[in-house]
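Minutes, project huddle
Topic: does the predicted pose make sense with guanosine-5'-triphosphate bound?
PN asked that the exact inputs be recorded in the minutes so nobody has to dig through chat later. Recorded below.
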Amino acid sequence: MREIPADFRAGFVAIIGRPNAGKSTLTNALVGRKVAITSDRPETTRRVIRAIVTREDGQAILVDTPGMHRPRTLLGERLGDMVRDSLEDVDAVVMCLPANEKIGPGDRYIFEMAKKTKAPVVAAITKTDLVAPTEVATKIAEVSEAYDFAEIVPVSAVAGNQVEDLAGVVVAQLPPSPPLYPLDAVTDQSEEVMISELIREAGLADLREELPHSLAVTIDEMQETTTRAGEPLLRIHASLHVERNSQKGIIIGKKGARLSQIGRAARQSIQQLFGSKVYLDLHVRVSKDWQRDPKMLNRLGF
Ligand SMILES: Nc1nc2c(ncn2[C@@H]2O[C@H](COP(=O)(O)OP(=O)(O)OP(=O)(O)O)[C@@H](O)[C@H]2O)c(=O)[nH]1
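Predicted holo structure (tokens), as shared on screen:
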């Protein structure tokens, strides 16, 4: 293990922002690896994910929160609780504000929540690649007037601009501390959670509005075996839960075409992550109103 400098800093950092603000993409860019799933539909993130960024000068443990919105279902309420919990006991907060969108009521609602934490709040002006440099300057002025941020850093997770600078600014807000996780750790999620998130990501890709966020994934069985040729093989049986029969049809597609496509995409990303061959068996189940069913939510880990 390399030597830890005496002025090393470490702590927990909440990444907040309204749905679609770019939190998951920024988390992945900061870690340099995919740990959070992303999509262009709001409210993709359902879990509080811990991603770990380790640098020469410190270690930031990122808590990726679900986009904040007014709760309509029991799932919504639990997500809200998860966000509030994740703002307690953090050492710093990063609030994502997209460069290409005006500050709105959703952001102001989050400012109010952020005021309740004692931790410094850094503004990350995200998606700067989508606007002209002069617009970034205007945005910085708008953001500095809207809230008393400790620092403001414009960043593009997609173009990779200023991601390192943001990491440096965030680490500087953390208290002096030895590393809290091993230096090579990137996440504390279980393999099962990561696999189910990758399957959910594949399920959400290319879906039109008719199947919004009624999709949940459970891993029913997972087994490490070998192929006939003796190579390591990960066998996974998973269920895709939807709320209605009509949604089941959408997921399966004509003659099962969509489901096969989901299986192929998910298998590829799982193989990439684990570096071994994967056999993936997917079942689609209708679990009526799972977002309102306490038993089902518990099973899914909410
Ligand atoms: N051009 C560009 N697009 C970005 C950037 N960061 C995120 N996006 C896009 O913005 C959309 C939302 O990004 P996410 O990272 O999923 O947003 P999120 O805040 O985690 O969203 P929720 O999970 O809904 O809370 C995706 O389509 C991303 O590809 C960026 O730096 N540049």
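Observations noted during the meeting:
- Strands lie at 9-16, 49-54, 58-64, 92-98, 121-126, 151-154, 216-226, 232-242, 277-286.
- Residues 67-71 have pLDDT under 50 and may be disordered.
No decisions taken; revisit at the next huddle.
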